[in-house]
Specification:
- This protein is mainly alpha-helical.
- It folds into 2 domains: 2-40, no CATH class; 57-116, no CATH class.
- The chain is 53% helix and 0% strand.
- It has 7 helices and no strands.
- Helix 1 packs across helix 2 (13-21).
- It is elongated and about 65 Å long.
- The protein starts with a helix and ends with a helix.
């Protein structure tokens, strides 16, 4: 344990000093209850509709104002290998034939906060 402590201090001298000094300690004056207990007590459960949600290319396209912006998103996602060439071609075809709103209504600022009830 002593070797690990010395290694930590050598690797992270500032962090080790901060942790050992206790200067930036934060007191905790409440504890989040067990979710099942909170529900039993009638407390409202925090909504987590988008917890661990990973936006898709369609989500990004729905933030676009123009077909040109949507096309740039598709090219970018394909370049980063986040979508396949075939999927990119399908999206480009739909964009050209039907326009950006064919992917869904525009997602405005704070869309995810509003949808999850946090805003």
């Amino acid at each position: 344990m002593v070797a690990a402590d010395k290694s930590f201090k050598k690797t992270f001298p500032h962090l080790a000093r901060e942790l050992s000094s206790g200067e930036n300690a934060v007191s905790i004056d409440s504890v989040e209850p067990n979710p099942e207990e909170a529900e039993a007590e009638g407390e409202e459960k925090q909504p987590d509709k988008f917890h661990n949600y990973v936006p898709t290319v369609i989500d990004f396209i729905r933030r676009c104002n123009t077909d040109k912006e949507a096309h740039e998103i598709i090219v970018y996602m394909e370049k980063r290998c986040e979508i396949t060439k075939e999927h990119a071609e399908q999206l480009k075809k739909q964009l050209k034939e039907k326009g950006v709103r064919s992917f869904g209504t525009k997602k405005e600022t704070d869309y995810y906060f509003k949808e999850s009830g946090l805003c």
